[in-house]
Design a protein that fits this description.
Number of helices: 17
CATH class: Mainly Alpha
CATH topology: Na+/H+ antiporter like fold
Largest sheet: none
Structural class: mainly alpha
Oligomer: single chain
Radius of gyration: 21 Å
CATH architecture: Up-down Bundle
Low-confidence stretches: none
Helix content: over 70%
Number of strands: 0
Shape: globular
Amino acid sequence: MESPSTIELAKATLLMVSVVMSLGVAAALLADRVRIPDVPILLIIGMAAGPAGLGWVDVPVGSTLNQLILIFGAAYILFDGGATLRLSVLRQTWITITVISTAGVLITGGITAAAAHWLMGLPWPVALLLGAVLASTDPATLVPVFRQIAIRERVAQTVMSESAFNDAMAAIITFSLLAAITGGGDFSLSKALGDLVWEAGIGLLIGALIGYGLAWSIGHPSQAWLVEHASVLTLIAVSAAYLIADRLHASGFMAVFVVGIFHGNLDALGFAVEKKTAHESEHFILTTAFIMRVMIFILLGAQVDFALIINQGLTALGVVLIFMLIARPLTVLLCAGPDRRAAWSRNELLFMCWTRETGVIPGALAGMLLAMNAPGAQVIASVTLAILITILVQATTTRWLAEKLDLLDCRST
């Protein structure tokens, strides 16, 4: 028989989930009314409902519940993003995606580290760690934004693909630097490159194998009996892809993104699903992704450490502004500008220079450094400020900027 404390904990968790979902529905209605993505509104509501506000939502960062929501939520949102991509678009923009997801992370991290060193007076090792943590974009933020705003297809899909692929690069740089700083090993370029190839390659392979298996299960005529369980199969595929890749020390997020690409391109793979089944599956995916988005961003807002942000003051704000207004534009211009195959227009480049929200992935890296008591971890945790500013400012202005640059997809609006 369960102890009273366990039962009370279960009831409290159920109440918290009910409160969060109710707030999420209210946020979605408000976002629809003011015509902006719901992510920034969810974040603000989370800040108001958290321990520093009304105290309705209090889930510790290191709790099992929080980690489960972050891992599965981000994975499922990424799967949803992969399902929106088209192979024809990827064939046109793969050079930009590859370069900006690898060299671009180094450029962004290096410029941000220099800003942190000069403005905040951080030692170079800590500044480099901070730059590495901030260097990757966040799929859990970007995918919902592009789901809600119909941006020109190749631009939206390139930015989403970058966010899916660059987390491996950022993680490898972060922990390679940490090993060198703490004496756990000397930094080795060849080892770092080998780790990147392994994480990316195995992640892609696992995603492709499970993605094709999912496509075959719901799209091959001989498996018609599984079609009615297509929605459940997507849950299994997402969990399996992430966990298997993670167990093999590869990128779980990359794996689930690739599974999503396979699921969204059944016709290109020679499979076919009835319209009714496809509609039901899409509705299930959108609903599940919405639930995960609500949970992630309300909890993220509730966990904002205002004292830490205030303590860092204007110098941290200066680093974030350099990160947004200098590091990102230079990264895009250097990595995407020379790509003749994609032949990006000026307006497309300008849009990509602005759109690079930070969120769950950098937050998770900062949390890991805190848990490991890494040098400067408390300062690096001020990454929260970057998460707040990029989501609140960049996500809310995405539609406005796309309209100004004539990048809205009129076919979908």
